[in-house]
Amino acid sequence: MQIDSIASAERAGNLFGYPLMIKSKRLAYDGRGNAVAHSKEELPSAVSALGGFDRGLYVEKWTPFVKELAVIVARGRDGSISCYPVVETIHKDNICHIVEAPANVPGRIKELSVDVAQQAVSSLEGAGVFAVELFLTKDGKVLLNEVAPRPHNSGHHTIESCYTSQYEQHLRAIIGLPLGDTTMKTPAAIMYNILGEDEGEPGLCLANQLISRALSVPGASVHWYGKPEMRKQRKMGHITIVGPSMNIVKARLDQI
Amino acid sequence: MQIDSIASAERAGNLFGYPLMIKSKRLAYDGRGNAVAHSKEELPSAVSALGGFDRGLYVEKWTPFVKELAVIVARGRDGSISCYPVVETIHKDNICHIVEAPANVPGRIKELSVDVAQQAVSSLEGAGVFAVELFLTKDGKVLLNEVAPRPHNSGHHTIESCYTSQYEQHLRAIIGLPLGDTTMKTPAAIMYNILGEDEGEPGLCLANQLISRALSVPGASVHWYGKPEMRKQRKMGHITIVGPSMNIVKARLDQI
């Protein structure tokens, strides 16, 4: 629901209850562009934390979820649709920390997730890859969180784990080639984001230790983005580990 | 055995019998730089087909083989050695046509192949990836054919099928990083070379049809080298198909 004044925010609060999630329509990612009002009194400060109403704000009912899931959906220029396996995304301080593929949820939840993701993409236009982020609630409901119309952090693992990576799939989709096979060629994959720490030379930080250890771990692939400077909590790279089971890839990640 | 005159070629013929394989020490690949003399009388023409003795010639005893195998071996700067699974290479007109990974040979032959490959690389210096080509004889012997000190056609499949591709492995080896895991992450892979046909526009040839069909085949990845011109029998690209069994990837290749 859109809001454009404190009065309309208060009406939304009456409708949805508190805490109330307030979101910016633009430049919202990694927790940026989101603010929570725990009561009517907090509405003005939450709105001003988001830069005021000028940037375009809307509210969502607060969702207590048990897991966050994601589905990468590709739509070709001919309208054909193809979904990747459902993954679980584990966030820390609102930033994606780990992605597990496939998600450890019952088959019914996987089907439901794919349904919701396909519906979400159907309501949008355009060819290419879309990342659909979902909430799984305690009572087994799957709710739409957000859609990113592009290759996405939750699909990085596909480079090593799937027959067609999300990047190749995006190219196939926008060029008008047939969509590729989205199934996994390894039983399990785990993706770990390397986040920036305090300012400083990248050469001296934990990232280098992670990378150096990862080079000796079977099935681990290091991706370093070569960003010109490190900033705290900035995504500097990621490590994907593929292997014969989720327990094994988790154990390999623990080594790193 | 080196030869530098027709007289020494004849001595080699007496020693090894005919047919006798004559090889050039340089610029020998895809059947180029090889000539066969079926009798003493054919020696002069075979030698002159190779450009005469000035280019450096040697002879090998003719080997009737039942299969050609290959092993990619990596040696790190610290001397550590790592071998990829043994593959079968299927040639047509002396040019690699298809590579099947893993090779369909008994475990004993695989061990023997890895032994011979490691021995061959041990006798050479330098860090990096070496491709060791082998002959399997009817009586179960594994003989060294040749060694290419570089990433090689017989290892192209590793891009999709192994935890570490031969290219990443080569970089790890020469930079001094730990060698990566060489095991296959898919049960089977088949690589098909796209060879140039008669002169002409690449856009009009069979290659485009192959690529176009491959795009719809699960587990198929097309690699097109972008060479500036097509020449008959020139390697223009390749297609790798990975999947759950050799029968399945062969069937998928048949579709293409």
Automatic annotation (TrEMBL), chains A, B:
Pfam families: ATP-grasp (PF02222), PurK_C (PF17769). Keywords: ATP-binding, Decarboxylase, Lyase, Nucleotide-binding, Purine biosynthesis. One of its GO terms (cellular component) is chloroplast. Residues 16-175 form the ATP-grasp domain. One of its GO terms (biological process) is purine nucleotide biosynthetic process. GO terms for molecular function: ATP binding; metal ion binding; phosphoribosylaminoimidazole carboxylase activity. The keyword NAD does not apply. Pathway: Purine metabolism; IMP biosynthesis via de novo pathway; 5-amino-1-(5-phospho-D-ribosyl)imidazole-4-carboxylate from 5-amino-1-(5-phospho-D-ribosyl)imidazole (carboxylase route): step 1/1. It catalyses: 5-amino-1-(5-phospho-D-ribosyl)imidazole-4-carboxylate + H(+) = 5-amino-1-(5-phospho-beta-D-ribosyl)imidazole + CO2. The keyword ATP-binding applies. In the C-terminal section; belongs to the AIR carboxylase family. Class I subfamily. This is phosphoribosylaminoimidazole carboxylase. It comes from Iris pallida.
